Structures are given as C-alpha cells and as structure tokens.
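Hey, can you fold this?
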Amino acid sequence: MAEDFRGVYEIVESYNDHAKVDMYELRADTFLDDMDYDGLMKGWSKLKELSKKPILFTYRTRFEGGLGKSSITEYNEVVRTVIKEVRPEYLDLELSSCCSDANAKMYIRLANHYGTKTILSKHDLVYTGSAKEIEMLFMRMHYLGCHMPKIAAMANDEKDVISMVIGAEKAKSQIGDLIAISMGKMGVKTRLPGNLNKSAIGFAKPVGRKVDKNSSELTGQIDIEEM
C-alpha cells in the first residue's frame, strides 16, 4: 500500500469491490517511521471505516527486505503498540525480530487477548533451506501458537523451489494452513494458482506511490489479475 494514509484511503476505495481481493496488507513500514502516534491512530480509525475487508498490519524491517528503519528494540515497541492500541484483525510478526521464541510466543498470546490473529513470518532474501529445514521451521512457528506461519525464501534454482514445495506440503499435512513462497523469478510458480502453490493466502504486487518496483520484480511478486 501507499506511504501515508491518504494514499491508502484511495487504494482501499479502488479495490473494496474487487473480486480477487479478500484482504488488504497495510505495509506500515512505508510510512510509520515518519508518523507520530496520533497520526497513526487517526489514520487507522478512518481506514477501518472505509475498508470492507480485513486488514493485515505489516511493519517489515530492513532486515527482512522491508523499508522499516527501526532497530530490533524499536520493532518490539512497535509490535506492542500495534497489538494494544491499533488492534488489527491480522498482524505480521517477524520471528527473527522478536529476538527469541519466548518473545514471539508472548506477543502471540498478547495479540490473542486483544482479538488479533498473528501471521508469524520468516523472510530470507538469499537462501532457501532444505525441505526438512523448511518443514521443521513451519512446525516450530506453528507450535508457538500463531494463527498461520509464513516462510518466504529466495529461490536461486529449481531445486530451491522443490525444497519449498515439499517442505510446505509435509508441514501442511500436519498443521494445516500456512504460507510458503519461493521468491525471485524462479519462484513465481509458487504464487500462481496450481499444485505448486501451497499457501492459504496469496500476496499480490503492492500498489502505491512509494512501491519499490525493483524489489517487487526481485521477489517475484505478481499482479492481482494473475492470481
């Protein structure tokens, strides 16, 4: 989405009745670092009034490919504020930025208390692990109590895509819904409809004035109409 709430309002109104859009992802890392608390709460309140669909609140740190400038300590402060004050329907929670499994579990429980479902995520812009490593990471994230685990890893070759698909398939048979994405041009097939797509939720190419088109191409994101 866009870099401030004015742009977000326009996007939401444009896509509210789009048949392929079931949820919005608010990429707060595109504007939150330059916004105060009052601005966040006022903007969020109006956004909730306009949106006809649930919203996933995401603050993606620079450590996992986002625009967020916050340190790990600041990220954790953002998470606590969003859970307690913003209270979105869904919250993306970066496993690595939580610093520990214990912290991640604490935030998940806190989010549950305030009625927010968590997508516990792990993004790797360089490396894809083995199918077994992917399966075990999904299992680990699931047992921390999140609503849905998400793994996105860069596919450097066809073998990486196969590892993601097999690992996700094995985990899915044990824990249910998950999100598994192979990033890059090699991994586009994991985003498209078909038997290589194991994800319960798909992510289309972002829209807005501050979208990094080079980043979208690098990670293999596709237009909503292709999904």
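Oh, and this one too while you're at it.
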Amino acid sequence: MNKYKLLIADHNKDQCAVLEKYFSSVPEFDVQPSVQNGEKALQRAVLGDIDVMIMDVVLPGLDGLEVLYRIKNKGLSDPPKVFIHSAISLDPVLRLSQSLNALYYFQKPIEPSVMCRRVLELLECSAPAKISNAPEFSVVSEDFDSEDVITDLIRQMHIPASLKGYHYAKSCVSLFIEHINTSGYGMTTHIYPAVAKMYDTTPSRVERAIRHAISVAWSRSSPEELSRMFGYAVNKNKAPFTNSEFIAMLADRTAIKLKSKAR
C-alpha cells in the first residue's frame, strides 16, 4: 500500500510530538521529521517529497499564510495537500487560507483521532476546500473601538501600563488586525519595524519588551485565567507564549469581542 508522506509544521515541539505519535500509528501515513519554521516547511513542499502537510499559521520566519502563498505561486505540478491547524479563528485568516488552497482548517485544540479521520476523508475524495468551524465572513462595525478591547484584554493579563511592552503589544495587535489580509506582512519584517518607528526605538527592543511583558503576564496570571482568555488549556510548566502566538491570540480575542458587541 502506498503511504501518504506527512509533514507537520508547528513551532510547538510538544504539539508536533503529539501529532507525530498518533499519525505514525496509522498505516496510511509515513510521518516525516517535523519542522518548526516556515522556511523549512516551504523547502519541503518545493522539494516535492511530501504528499500532505499539517501546518500552523503562527510560524517563525515565514508564517503559514505566506508558505501557502508561495506554494501556490510556485506553480508546482503536484503540490502537497495542506491542512491548517491553528488557534487563530479570525475570519480573514480562515478565508485567506482557503483562497490559497488549504484543503481544511482545523481549530486548536482538536483530538488527533478526529483530525486524522477528516484528513483521510478529504485525501480520499476530490472535495473542494473546506474550513472547519468557519463562521460566515463579517465586517466589524467601525462604531466599536478595537483599541479599547485590546487594552482591556492586556490588562486582564495583569500587564501594567508602565511597561513598554504593554504599549508595543497594543500597537502590534492593531497592525496585525489591520493587515491580516496582506500576504507576507510578517511580525519581524513589518510589524516590529512599524511599531519601532511609532515609538522611536528599534525592532529588537520592541521584540524584547513584548517578550518581557509576556513573562510578566505568565507569572501573574493563573492557568485558569489564561485558559479562559485564549480558549484552550494552558500549562504553565511549559514555556510561555511566543511573541507571535501572543499577538495572534490577542487579535483573535479582539475580533471575537468586537463581533459580539456588533450583534
């Protein structure tokens, strides 16, 4: 029996290990060593030696959407089937991933057995691209101030306004939401430099200040508070969120709160 060569691309090594372990037990898959950044995911896709890729949106270097964009524009004769697996549920991200030929969008957290069953179903048929749990696209009314929502979310994480990272994070989230449909608009390539220019500082200082703010939030917030805010169980015995995860999740929570206000 020919097996599907499967690559998992996720910055979280623990998440990779969980999926690798499960899919390795399924006879239809030949699981390849996972990768933790977008550049390596793109390299493997271009090489043409994988059939299926399960990829997060938040990846260092190139994010998942940029990887999809470049795969699509390479004009590969037999590109891998890409399944997105992410905690981000922003409507534009879901729609953009679909337009870039993602076969399915899995919302974290999801049981590996459920994911595996859905992957096999879609691989074994020529169904059009689908998105898991994707709401109808909607535009948030400008009557609601996203900055107020972002501020409230950051304060809930016990990050004091005296920290530079507090202000840098707010600006990063606003830019993330504003440019969510802009392909290639990355955290390190565009957002950090833009915020640095706003505050007359450097991108590296912006990155460090946000990382410090995250460490403060991690130390002051309980696991229950973080889990309620971000919608999945947070294990404080593991490493804190990366900057990209933190900004993406705040943007996601902001969009959800704005839509609930608009109703």
